[in-house]
Amino acid sequence: MNLLDKVWIVPAIMAASFLLILFFGKRAGTKATAGLGIAAVSVCLVFSVVVAGQWINRVNHPPTGEKLAEDIRQANGLTPQTPEAVESEANAATHDAGQTVDQGSSSGSEHGAAATGAAEGESAAAPLAATEQPATPTAEGSTSAEGEHGAEHESVPPVVRTVTWFEIGPIHFELGTLVDGLSAMMLVTVCIISLLVHIYSTEYLHGDVRFTHYYAFLSLFTASMLFYVISSNTLQMLVGWELVGLCSFALIGHWWEEKNNTDAALKAFLTNRVGDMGLIIGVTITFFAAGATSFNVLHINEYALSGGANTTLLLVGALCLFGGVTSKSGQFPLHTWLPDAMAGPTPVSALIHAATMVVAGVYLIARLYAVFFQGLGIGSSSLHYVAFIGGFTTVMGGVLAFVQTDLKKVLAYSTISQLGYMVMALGVGAWTAGVFHLFTHAFFKACLFLGAGSVSHACHHTFDMREMGGLRKHMKSTHATFAIASLALAGIVPLAGFWSKDEILAGAQQGQRNAYTLMLVFGLITAFMTAAYMGRAYWMTFWGEYRGHGTPHESPKVITVPLWVLAICAIFLGFLNFPARFFGLELPSGVTTRFEHFVEPTFAFPQIEHPTFTPWLAVLSTVLAVAGIATAYLYFEKNKGPHGLTHRSGAARAGYTFLENKYYLDTLYTDIIAADTKGPLARAAYWFNQNVLDGIVDGAATVSKKVARFVYRDVDQLVVDGVVNGSGLVSEESGQFLRRMQTGKVQQYAAILFAGVVVLAGVLVFVV
Amino acid sequence: MKDFLNSWGLSLAIFVPLVGAFVMLLVPKAQEQVHKVLALATSLVVAVIGVLLLANFDYDQGRTLQFVVDKSWIPFINSRYIVGIDGISLPLIALTMLVVPLCIIYSWNHFPEPRNPKAFLVLILILETGMVGTFCAQDLILFFVFFEVVLLPMYFMIGVWGGEKRRYAAMKFFLYTLFGSALMIVSFMALYFLSDKVPTADGMMHTFDMRALPVAAAGISTTAGLWIFGGMFMGFGIKVPMFPFHTWLPDAHTQAPTVGSVILAAVLLKLGTYGFVRIALPILPQAAEKWAPFIGLLAVIGIIYGALCCLAQTDMKRLIAFSSVAHMGFVMLGIATLTDFGINAAIFGMVAHGLITGMLFFVAGSVKERFHTLDIARLGGMLKQMPRMGWILGFSAMASLGLPGLAGFWGEFPAILSSYNPGGNLNVGLFRVYMVVAALGTVLAAGYLLWLYQRVAFGTPREEFADDPHIHDASFTEYVAWVPMLILIVVLGFFPNILFHVTNPAVTDMVAAMGFRG
Description:
The structure holds 2 protein chains of 2 kinds. By secondary structure, chain A is mostly helical.
């Protein structure tokens, strides 16, 4: 059975699990709740693995002829620009001629509408492209590279299945699934980590007041994340994107009795909303740029790759989209929510705030890579915003990890730093390296977080490393797995982190047409720092003497087994993308760069240069990592080196304070921007409302009241009534009645009404 | 069946509530149970008619008016009794017919002081006649009459069953809206006299027929058109309400009884936006194009301004009231773009806002009933004391801030999207600025709603309420009243085509008739 086109079942299972737990979880009890969640994720994992297998099979045996044309038609986009795709498009064209006849008229017209829109988009952009010469060399540069690349990879279109979601104007918007290597990889990763977290949580949250609530949101989160990664269009991605944000909010605020936790939850949601502003606008811009007919990601990518693409629009669109990435994936300067998000339960930190949700931004870049590649000119540049922010974030996060005493916060800043690595990789054109790092990082970082949870489980729920120490004696499994994952993160050969990190560095060093030297420097600094701060955390936690209360104990199997699974992944997964040439070693091509082969898109994807393994760089980064560990060992464990610097030197103290305050970004956001918006600014707006706007309304009433009094007393009573009374024609009763009528407020207001009517009527009569 | 509906369906939907109200007048005041049953039965009959209308509506012909009745009414000014619905009015009628019975159910055990269910329920039924009538009317005078019928019951509802400052609020609501209406009727008159005559049985006459006016009014000079639009802008704009004519709204909402607030938010405000879409835009497209940048400006000011005022509130209900100003800003922005995208979004936004803000007012009412205060500083720990209601509030807040996957999103996002590329000869750069400002509004919306939620629902209950036996979780009648709305919020969020499918043909046609590209 072909599951590639039935992949919608995966999030559907999790959504069903969410609803069941939400409505029946309390009644069914904690065992049944956890069991249901675990069962649902297990089914999803099996499904995902099958999907991944079928995708691998598809790459190995690419569809041809009619099948290929049909798939391309389903993927629905502009004329593909790559030669191999052009070829297939030619096939498709001959095929289409016959197809349109027996196709239903609806899909035919839909296709036609898309084509017209695309044509419009192109013709509008054509003059621009003609004047903008720099765009052309890029295209040429990539064509030259196509020859060799095209030979080794055939174009395998993703499997896209859509239904109409809604219609506005003549356009039918689609709801659909898109399966390719990237989404299959994400499906498997999310399901594995989610399953382990589900299992782990049965113990970690044992006896928690809101156990069912917790599992419900785990299910909803998994559903939303899976929905996000299989989305076929940007609008759908936006939905998934926000839903994972909602789950993050709910789970950070899981223990909502404490104000700190709810503050963190609010901060996470609001910071992400700031980024979402960019995302919403970016989705809008890319939609209109690509002809205003479809949100389909392949369609947008193909537009970006077409010669007529408006590069200015792509640049603005890419930067706006990057706004969303900045918040979701913790890039500078919107990373500040992520460390606070550690207020949530630790398994949640592992799943959401390390392995899956926070990489949604990285995934967005990877998914819409053509937009970023063309918009930012990744192929021809040696420095641009995205690469720089990625590089800067990776260093900035790493620095802050040194001054944390909370184990989870160290890991949180490390996550920020590693996310910076991924963004930087994508920024320098090393697509596979960035995505591969996403993949490997998910496992060892989840392992570290769950390890931290295990430690805290043993140490009376503290994460303060000053109250730990010496735990290696008490918690053998936790210690071993934590050490393995730390080494993987530090990038020690041959663990997983080494391979992905090395590829990123090679990517920065080799660049596309130019080297991204600054990014290489950032990357190397981070390689050293990562090893050093992980070393610090490791020694503070597991070595020395125990500084906390009571006797720590090893966690039960339900916690250690997931740790071991992740640790084993952290050891071996790096080999999935074993380089074609590793020092002297040349393995057969069937086993090297498998990750690249199966995951990197070959359809609607820019032509990129793949970094090759560079021995001196691998040696250098390893030396740096070892030096980092050694430094940490000497400084934190052996107490060597210049300690007490912050006491002796004013400059060092100032620097330390600056770091302790996280560069004062939190102060800027919380105390200045947020506080001033909800304080003085909101009060000023409300004051204006009550005193100026309402003042005018009430003032008008007062004035008309005065006018009315004047009319009544001086005109009506003296003049009119005088006349009336004088003539003696009106009885006293009616006079009384009139007076009663005229003292009400209605009459005073009615005067304004009348005045207004008179003015407008006058205008209409005399002016018009 | 179809024939019967064609000739009687809409008239029944409009006047059955009035008949019900009349019957209730004959029943003595003391028989409260009878009144409740009568009122609910009447509104349910209307709802059944509504379902029949929905079932018999030809969705493929959503662009054309259906169930049309055209009868002589005031012959000497050629004002006729014309009713009919198309894809634009259908969702709003359905919303009205849903909300009214839910409000009656909610009131079952919640009659605000000074009680008197008879009068209260009679007023609700009269309101329903006015609301359904407004959405059905296809003659300007008929429209105006129904538009005004709505005013009095709401005036009494606020003035009699309202809070401490109810007199002031009721008077302000009444006169402010009436002021707008007066300008509106002057515009209608001008439209009548300045547009071309149309052939009738009694020879050539001026017309109030909304179907004929887009053509008949084509000859009106640009200047006159601008002024006429201006009059309608005041009439509809005050009702929406648009910044800076919104100041009646927070007072009315804060003082109104719960059900009054719900109806006000869910339906009454839509009379204004509906007026723009149904009357002002199609009849005077050129003037609309001239006014659109200004309307868009006020809309985005409203979005930001409403949000800022929300942040300054200490009263939960007043906060929700100000959030309406912000949300209606999105609706008006969508309308101001003059595109099929924007107007579809606007109608979706109207329905979504009706459901979501209606829910928020329901919850606020229930909180007030239990705590006897809506002072945010005194509330807290709602999730602890009444977890289910806390969840419902959280859900509604999330919907209100435009979370994708819930109904509110489909009012906001397409409105933002459409301002990227406005219709007609509108200034693209200007509207893109509006787009960015509106997007900023979504951030602020999240800010005030979540902050409210944090203060009201998170944490632990204050000491003064901690052991109050009066405070209990959502009751049966509350569930019955709320569940349909909650379900609709989710369903519309995931299947927006339920609504877009209905509105799109009519909107696309209208935009095309106005001569703007989609």
